[in-house]
């Protein structure tokens, strides 16, 4: 195992800057997830670490060794790809054993390692099959087994579950989590799926346009987003963002939302000014049709019009409108009715304020 460090890492393809600045230290044994939309640079960062892409500038350090000019096969890293990348003419056993054969390991030792990995990944009944005879989840487990037997310093996963159906992705997430808990190997995992990030990671790195937007535990990035992008990227359904303007009424600040006003919690008072344009953030799950479970002095009440409804299973997603602005409310089915107008309350302790000019959270100012 080893820690990994990126120092001022940059990558350009011609005139196009894909990774503009990436500085990060991954602790020994940590499970780190690089999360972001397509084109943010996350897979490129992983491929530079693996030695599959040249570095434009900066350093990649594995353990205490700068690996910028080290061949990929000499970096002691194991990568699991989105496409599985199995040899179609080889059996499961041969695919897992291939890297060990290249290292010149003796046959009895290879057999021991292959069967140990196969047992952990429940591949023992499949060892004589070819990849074409396997399901997508089984192929991905073979790819994981091939990486495991190498006992690398670092595991790299490049969107390994994106080709699988939803149920199988859940199963494979559990297997990857169990694998990391068992082997305790430093792991860097790339995905655009926030559910994968939130369920697997010790820490999440959220990327946008080649820059880091925020680094933190899953709980930190969900509960304390650094800016509007993170606030809306993390969480499903996305956080509501309402345009407003700060006004001072006596010794209290309010946000004018147009047809409604909102009292600003005192924790923001030293970070805002009268006349400031802001965006108010509230998650749909922090808005309620009933207020019995919230302290009365911690709620804000509004009247909204319901424009549409979506069934989420046990809950209903209400698409409402507050003045001219749209507001999503996730409510229990038993609380909803067919009314076009309804009263809602939200917990002001869960309120977020963002500076409209730069999108940054005012909680961190």
TrEMBL record:
Query: What SMART domains does this protein map onto?
Result: AAA
A cellular-component GO term for this protein: ATP-binding cassette (ABC) transporter complex, substrate-binding subunit-containing
| Record domain ABC transporter: where | 4-234
Gene Ontology MF term list: ABC-type transporter activity; ATP binding; ATP hydrolysis activity
Q: Which GO terms describe its biological process?
A: carbohydrate transport
Q: Which PANTHER family match?
A: MALTODEXTRIN IMPORT ATP-BINDING PROTEIN MSMX (PTHR43875), OSMOPROTECTIVE COMPOUNDS UPTAKE ATP-BINDING PROTEIN GGTA (PTHR43875:SF1)
Protein name (record): sn-glycerol-3-phosphate ABC transporter ATP-binding protein UgpC
| Annotated organism of origin | Vibrio casei
Task: Please spell out the taxonomic lineage of the organism that makes this protein.
Answer: Bacteria, Pseudomonadati, Pseudomonadota, Gammaproteobacteria, Vibrionales
């Amino acid at each position: 195992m080893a820690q990994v460090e990126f120092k001022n890492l940059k990558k350009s393809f011609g005139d196009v800057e894909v990774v503009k600045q990436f500085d990060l230290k991954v602790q020994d044994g940590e499970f780190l997830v690089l999360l972001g939309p397509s084109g943010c640079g996350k897979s490129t960062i992983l491929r530079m670490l693996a030695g599959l892409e040249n570095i434009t500038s900066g350093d990649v350090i594995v353990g205490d060794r700068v690996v910028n000019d080290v061949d990929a096969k000499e970096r002691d890293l194991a990568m699991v790809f989105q496409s599985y990348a199995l040899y179609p003419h080889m059996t499961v056993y041969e695919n897992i054993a291939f890297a060990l054969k290249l290292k010149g390991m003796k046959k009895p030792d290879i057999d021991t390692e292959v069967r140990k990995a196969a047992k952990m990944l429940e591949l023992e009944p499949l060892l004589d099959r070819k990849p074409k005879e396997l399901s997508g989840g089984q192929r991905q487990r073979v790819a994981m087994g091939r990486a495991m037997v190498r006992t690398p310093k670092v595991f790299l996963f490049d969107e390994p579950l994106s080709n699988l159906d939803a149920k199988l992705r859940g199963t494979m997430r559990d297997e990857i989590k169990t694998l990391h808990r068992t082997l305790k190997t430093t792991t860097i995992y790339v995905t655009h799926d926030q559910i994968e990030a939130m369920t697997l990671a010790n820490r999440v790195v959220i990327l946008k346009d080649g820059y880091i937007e925020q680094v933190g535990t899953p709980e930190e990035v969900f509960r304390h987003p650094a800016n509007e992008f993170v606030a809306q990227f993390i969480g499903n359904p996305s956080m509501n963002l309402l345009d407003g303007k700060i006004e001072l009424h006596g010794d209290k600040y309010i946000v004018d939302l147009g047809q409604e006003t909102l009292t600003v919690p005192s924790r923001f008072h030293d970070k805002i000014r009268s006349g400031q344009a802001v965006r108010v953030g509230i998650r749909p799950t922090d808005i309620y049709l009933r207020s019995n479970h919230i302290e009365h002095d911690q709620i804000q009440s509004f009247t909204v019009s319901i424009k549409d409804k979506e069934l989420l299973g046990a809950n209903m997603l209400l698409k409402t409108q507050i003045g001219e602005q749209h507001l999503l409310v996730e409510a229990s089915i038993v609380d909803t009715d067919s009314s076009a107008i309804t009263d809602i309350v939200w917990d002001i302790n869960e309120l977020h304020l963002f500076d409209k000019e730069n999108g940054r959270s005012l909680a961190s100012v």
